[in-house]
Amino acid sequence: MTDLKLIRTIDVPDLDDIATGGAILGTGGGGDPYIGKLMAQEAIRRHGAVSLVDVDGFAADALIAPVCMMGAPTVMTEKLPQGEEIVIALRKLEKFMGRQVDGLLCGEAGGINSTTPFVAAAATGLPLIDGDGMGRAFPELQMTTFGMHGVSATPMVLGDDKGNSVVLETINNRWTERLARSATVDMGGSALLAFYPMTGALAKKAIVRGTLTLCADLGRTLREARVRHGDPVEAVRAALKAEIIFNGRVRDVLRRTVGGFARGEAEIEGLDEHRGHKLRIAFQNEFLIAERDGKTVVTTPDMITLLDAETGAPVTADGMRYGIRVVALAYPCAEQWRTPKGLELVGPRYFGYDLDFQPFTPGAARQAGPA
Amino acid sequence: MTDLKLIRTIDVPDLDDIATGGAILGTGGGGDPYIGKLMAQEAIRRHGAVSLVDVDGFAADALIAPVCMMGAPTVMTEKLPQGEEIVIALRKLEKFMGRQVDGLLCGEAGGINSTTPFVAAAATGLPLIDGDGMGRAFPELQMTTFGMHGVSATPMVLGDDKGNSVVLETINNRWTERLARSATVDMGGSALLAFYPMTGALAKKAIVRGTLTLCADLGRTLREARVRHGDPVEAVRAALKAEIIFNGRVRDVLRRTVGGFARGEAEIEGLDEHRGHKLRIAFQNEFLIAERDGKTVVTTPDMITLLDAETGAPVTADGMRYGIRVVALAYPCAEQWRTPKGLELVGPRYFGYDLDFQPFTPGAARQAGPA
User: Are residues B168 and B42 in the same domain?
Assistant: First the structure.
């Protein structure tokens, strides 16, 4: 039986914090937080506030549907989505499945996708579960804890801003990614999705819990540190229990868009305590590997966040520019990703790096002696 | 009220003629007739013969669905389709639309697609209408007389041999082509479709009538001419009321696969009465433009068929090889294509040729004096 527990009500100003927090957990990817925030705020202004609820309140047979935007951040900045196509995708999924959705879910924590579910929740009045399918952002749609727990990404609906839609039914989530990626490219580089429909029972096992609350807390922490002229980087670091692995200036960024993905490498030149050292970050939409002076220090799925050294604002792979001063934070990913099944989906080898996952423990290097 | 008029029953041996006739009307495209024939014969062996019926027997509100294969002929020869995925596509279309299909229809006359509807008709027991949406083959799915009469290509289902499927709903048929083409490429180069669902009333206006009977007649004509050691090329020419525009040897073929299409140009060197002359044929899957000694003689949508000079067997753009002897026939397309609306969809300018359509009339050049 469904007996919803309200965690909090999310209104227009809350989206500022959630978008910022999403961009922090977005680890360089997940899209421009500004766009997602505008969409969600507009939807809440028009339709009213959103109920953020605990997954445990849903009945075992409730129907839960994650919603999100798919697309390459480098393309998204040129094309402002309207947002409410996400509701069309959701309604088409309901029609295709012949039943109504009981609760919405966030697909990934990222600048855009931590906020797109609020558009759907505001417009439909459906409750939004506090959690997501990654605890961070990842570039491909099969890279979810939902999939790890055996949830099929299909039936899935993609909709665009012109009125086209696609329903996919596939034999596995890799096929879904392949077909959805092409459709997204055809649709102009971004599409709105309703996918991974699952029961309440499965959702309770398969989600990363508390992600949207964490986004809101991280955003608030950063905002408050700025208001009281504190140290915003240190405030975010403390909230994440992260380690500062580097402090420097972006010297070089190689970037290309391949099949809808922004891929590349950034080189950061050390300053202050890191003067004379170098950090190299490899990314595929998200930051995936960090190498300090040629030694691998962080590997996907563990988290690498870049913050602007002055303002503490998260810096995306797409937003990195020559000369900007950044601080690199590293911290552990959601525990479920560190299992063999998780690493198969999102470990370094899946992305083509000839490396094993090496769990990152904040402070471990310092405790073990000089690096 | 539905009151079906049976034209004839189609059994295993009939498919030999229909596939050959389809390849003749395929005007160089439409796929390898051998593959389609095998699929249809196997389906009829397993499920029984097919009823070929007149469109006029269907009720105005009957639901008619064309079925076909989409894909590039150059890719298809490497991947043998199973065929019965076409039934899965059809059933998914029925489920999506919430009603059953009353009659099947052929999408295009071509080596493959004149026969794929027989797979669906045999497996489901549904009647197959004698007609199609092109009266020939064309490379893109919006190039149909159905579309000319305002029928939307969607809802449309694509299925592959692995078990993946895609349902499209689009704002126009150009968008359908775009999204379906990408999905087909993803699916390995070919997909089975059920599309352009339409009422009986619309089907009566929107189809090219009699296409499958014409295919069967052309195939039989060619077969009988061979059996009695007659002139197979002349027999086909006479059946089509076509003109022989060239007789020669393939000297050069430029071919590339672009976005799932086989595009190119062929040069044919004259023999006998055409010695010293040259024919150039431009194709995009199908033969679209013929130019004799630098002068345009046939333009799409009028028909260009190449026959092997000895056997009379139709030669596809994909099957053209250096040195083979061919005879080029030209003849008028279905009358509806010669309207302004038809030429907008399939005239030379749509394909990127800087030419107006010039209606081809067999024998006109001869009557007007020396070429």
Answer: yes
| pLDDT one-digit tens code per residue, B97-126 | 999 999 999 999 998 999 999 999 999 999
**Pairwise CB contact (< 8 Å): A171 & B163:** yes
Peptide bond into A117 cis (omega under 30): no
Element (H, E) at A50: strand A50-53
User: Crossing angle for the helix pair A33-47 and A14-25, nearest 10 degrees?
Assistant: 150
Residues of A with CB under 8 A from a CB of B: 92, 96, 162-171, 175, 178-179, 182-183, 185-187
Q: Are A346 and A138 in contact (CB under 8 A)?
A: yes
Query: Quick one: which of B43, B8, B56 has its CA closest to B215?
Result: B8
- pLDDT tens sequence across B327-366: 999 999 999 999 999 999 999 999 999 999 999 999 886 6
Looking at residues A105-134, what average pLDDT do you find?
96
Is B273 inside a domain boundary? yes
CB contact under 8 A, A164 and B166: no
Residues B317 and B356 in one domain: yes
Contacts of A165 in chain B (CB under 8 A): 168-170
Are B196 and B324 found together in one domain? no
Q: Which chain A residue has the Cα nearest residue B94? A: A96
Position A95 pLDDT exceeds 50: yes
**pLDDT level of residue B370 (50, 70, 90 thresholds):** very low
Residue A114 domain boundaries = 6-211
Residue B218 lies in a domain: no
Q: Based on the domain organization, do B87 and B138 belong to the same domain?
A: yes
Query: Domains in chain B: how many in total?
Result: 2
Residue B222 lies in a domain: no
For the entire predicted model, the pTM comes to 0.88
Element (H, E) at B118: helix B116-124
Q: Are residues B147 and B28 in the same domain?
A: yes
Chain A environment of B185 (Cβ under 8 Å): 182
Residue B294 has pLDDT above 90, yes or no: yes
Q: Do A162 and B168 touch (CB under 8 A)?
A: no
CATH code, A341: 2.40.390.10
Q: Are residues B254 and B172 in the same domain?
A: no
Position A280 in a domain: yes
A365 CB neighbour count, 10 Å cutoff: 15
